[in-house]
Amino acid sequence: MGKGVAKILAGIDNQIHEVIILCRSKELGMATIKELEYSSGNKKLSIILCDLAKLIDVKKAIDEIQRKHDFLDCIFINAGLGYAAERVETEDGMDSHFQVNYLSQFMLTLNLLNLLENSENGGRVIFNVTRGGKIFWDDIQMQKNWSFENGIHQAMVAKRMFLFKLDDLYKRFKGSKVSFIGFEISQTVWSNQLNIIPVSMRIMATIMKFFGTFISIEKCGLIMAPLFTERFEESRKKSGKFVTWKKNEFIEIKEDNVVFNPDMQDSLWKASLELCKDKQTAQIAESLNSFTK
Ligand SMILES: NC(=O)c1ccc[n+]([C@@H]2O[C@H](COP(=O)([O-])OP(=O)(O)OC[C@H]3O[C@@H](n4cnc5c(N)ncnc54)[C@H](OP(=O)(O)O)[C@@H]3O)[C@@H](O)[C@H]2O)c1
User: Fold this and answer.
1) What is the pLDDT of residues 77-105, one digit of tens each?
2) What's the CATH class of domain 55-184+230-290?
3) Which of 148, 157, 223, 231 is least surrounded by Cβ atoms within 10 Å, i.e. has the fewest?
């Protein structure tokens, strides 16, 4: 989905947009740049190497982005592990779905807020999320009861709790300089996941594709592009909302009450900071939270 969005953003508006792709493989990243340069004619495309399963990499990526850029107009919180045959623990000692799909993105987002605030067009963070999910408070790293579905859904609800807390903090104390939007794609995207899932699931998906169940990454990019490029006034109206695209318009999805629960949000925020073990991230979080005291 990230590639689909990057492809469309690179090609629209007379190729004015500079697109930075965060990826873990230099080879695949450069191949993507080449492909997108060719399809869009845009030469303002670059990669930042970062394996989201390693907090040290996230730290390096943050430093590199801060060094190279004075502002960011938007970030897409998208990358994530989908299907997995078994639980894989990262070198930071966490469940990989939790770390890749949520925690590293938590750290990245907090550390890029200053650049988003510098955007002349109004900064925005678009979270790729789906509905449902729950936090396994007594087993966040899923050592006792792992399944890849639970791992994905826990990360999704965690991302939504994070985005609503950020939206609330910004609306109340920071003058709404940045918008935070949760987006759920309403049709399944034919993505690289299809190359990862077991053969039986792939056969089923191929049959479903025949019946038009899937959309391409490009179609997904076309649907999502306005979230990144629309006027800030429009973006602000969506901030703190969970939206999808249906019948040619963005519509709001009813969010679970638990996601708005400030105690739950604060517990997750605190647990996340402890797991990041990063002074700079803790300072940013502290300065945001200090407004509430
Ligand atoms: N497909 C759908 O219909 C759908 C629907 C709703 C939500 N989503 C969510 O959308 C996100 C993207 O899904 P997708 O379908 O596009 O999956 P995908 O084709 O498998 O793409 C996932 C992307 O995440 C990257 N990634 C995985 N682990 C990483 C790591 N440790 N460090 C850095 N990058 C990493 C992958 O990089 P590599 O290329 O190096 O593997 C790939 O670019 C996921 O969070 C998924 O849960 C998907």
Assistant:
1) 999 999 999 999 999 999 999 999 999 99
2) alpha beta
3) 231
